[in-house]
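Exercise 7. Given the encoded structure of a 168-residue chain, write a plausible sequence.
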């Protein structure tokens, strides 16, 4: 009887864990983009808060990115909970519609985009940073999405460095 109950508990635990990780966060960043570097602190905090509910990915959409430079960015900016995705052919970036670094795109279990936009409102435009910001869009989106709610549109556009797509 004890073994049977243990198996049921284990099965439920696995189901709950798998179900909880159906949120996928893709943070598009570039090693040399000053706004990507600045936003890394916010990305780190958010991943710590939601690590049990989402998986986190740093997507490097530039051909110049390498394993070495992306790992250095991850380590230097204290982003241990993020997986690294080198998107040299820009397939993921194009598929999800990323245009800026840093920009965050959240997808659900069906890979449907449920949020696309800025991390927070620290920047008014490139080169114009607020000293105090009031809207933490990524955190707000994850809070709602993890509760099964939709984050309302229109989503605020990310501000940063443009992703230049290569032609094929």
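Solution.
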């Amino acid at each position: 009887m004890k073994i049977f109950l243990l198996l049921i508990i284990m099965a439920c635990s696995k189901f709950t864990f798998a179900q909880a990780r159906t949120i996928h966060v893709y943070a598009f960043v570039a090693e040399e983009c000053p706004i990507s570097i600045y936003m890394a602190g916010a990305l780190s905090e958010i991943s710590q808060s939601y690590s049990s509910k989402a998986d986190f990915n740093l997507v490097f959409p530039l051909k110049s990115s390498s394993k070495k430079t992306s790992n250095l960015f991850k380590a230097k900016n204290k982003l241990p909970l993020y997986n690294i995705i080198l998107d040299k052919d820009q397939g993921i970036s194009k598929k999800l519609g990323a245009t800026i670094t840093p920009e965050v795109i959240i997808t659900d279990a069906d890979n449907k985009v449920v949020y696309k936009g800025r991390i927070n409102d620290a920047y008014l435009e490139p080169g114009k940073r607020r000293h105090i910001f009031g809207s933490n869009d990524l955190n707000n989106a994850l809070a709602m999405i993890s509760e099964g709610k939709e984050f309302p549109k229109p989503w605020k556009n990310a501000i940063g460095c443009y992703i230049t797509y290569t032609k094929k």
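Remark. Residues 1-20 have pLDDT under 50 and may be disordered. Students should compare their own answers with the one above.
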